[in-house]
Amino acid sequence: MGTPALAAALLVTPAFGPVRAQEAAPAGAASADDILNIPADVQLMTRADPNKRRATARVNGTIITGTDVDHRVALILAANQSSQISPEEEQRLRLQVLRNLIDETLQIQEAELQEIPVTPEEVDQTYNQLATERFGRTIEGMTTYLTSIGSSPASLKRQIQGELAWDRLLRRNVEPFVNVSQEEVGESYERIQANKGTDEYRIGEIFLAANSTNRAEKAQQAAQIMEQLRGGGSFIAYARQYSQASTAAVGGDLGWIQLAQLQNPQLEQAARELTPGQLVGPVEIPGGFSILYLIDKRQVGMADPRDAVVSLKQIAIDFAPGTSQEEAQRRAAAFAEGVAAIRGCGEADAAAVKLGAEIVTNDDITVRSLPEALQGTLLNLNVGESTPPFGSLEDGVRVLMLCGRDDPQVASGPSRDQLMRQMEDERVNRRAQRYLRDLRRDAVVEYN
């Protein structure tokens, strides 16, 4: 296994919505007041202490407190840039967070039982690396940030500990027993070679298992997740948080596949109609509901123009605070006219000075890494030509000038070694899910 996905609540944008809110009592049913004769004016004989850490669950004797849940929820809301959610969504999120904390506790306990615990020093090292490399903060700054959003370093460190513990367990107890034969790899390799030129899809999946008892509930969960994704939620985060497929640990990513590998005609048809960046679902299939996200599409064994490596000059002007829309439009028009008069990249630097613009050069950019809206435009440019101006009053206006392009070579497809690793990872993921199910089954969990 590779380096574990560190602190998913902060690295990606999660979402909420997998558990249905409690239903109202059916018409004609007796209320609690009728049955229990509860007075309308309830006066509690004791007051709750806000500083008391009230247990939410006890997992094999380890307590998960309401504060633990609060801090993890705060991490997710901050990563999702959501300060206000409905009470129903908050309740669903809290239930899912509690489940995740129970799983983390089981993973940490199992690592300790197997005598491969994660040390505080290892957790601190990963936490410090996350703070400085991912968030560009000092350790003190990271603490201040987490406290400001209603969370804590302890909450993030607990998640790191769980992920490191699980990675360690899989390395010892699962990976050594996963075998992929050379014959299997050879068959897969020959199949790929025979399929050169056919379409291949990189698909993300979120799968919610359902049966006849909970079908309606799971359908509602899937619809809620779909709504959040369409509103801008992170697919990777939703998959990691809620998917019950083995791909949840990798953000739902199935990798590059042919549609027949989905092994379901409904999913095949739904995926075939997608373009990169589109979602479809929930699609009801045997065993539950699926949501699919088309990450990318290519032809097997064929060069993809988007893999071209280009040399670009970015020429940009900014607008001072207080600039009116009219003045910005006037300056943008003059800028566009000036850029259009530049005769190739050799004149770009001097022309930028005359235009009062800044210029930045980068000689090693793949077209694929640029925003989708610019990819097609750049691929149609000749060397020395520029994109149309783009930007806003807040961000300024800029163009990209193409100064060179190295077209990609014909793709040879994955090597036998790459196929071997991919097949091994798939089997490890499947066994990991069974391992976690066994831990849940044998656990003693008491809910408060």
Automatic annotation (TrEMBL):
Pfam family for this entry, one: SurA_N_3
Signal peptide span: 1-21
UniProt name for this protein: Parvulin-like PPIase
Top-rank lineage group of the source organism: Bacteria
Annotated ranges, domain PpiC: 198-296
PANTHER family registered for this protein in UniProt: CHAPERONE SURA
PROSITE patterns for the chain: PPIC_PPIASE_2
Keywords: Isomerase, Rotamase, Signal
Organism of this sequence: Croceibacterium mercuriale
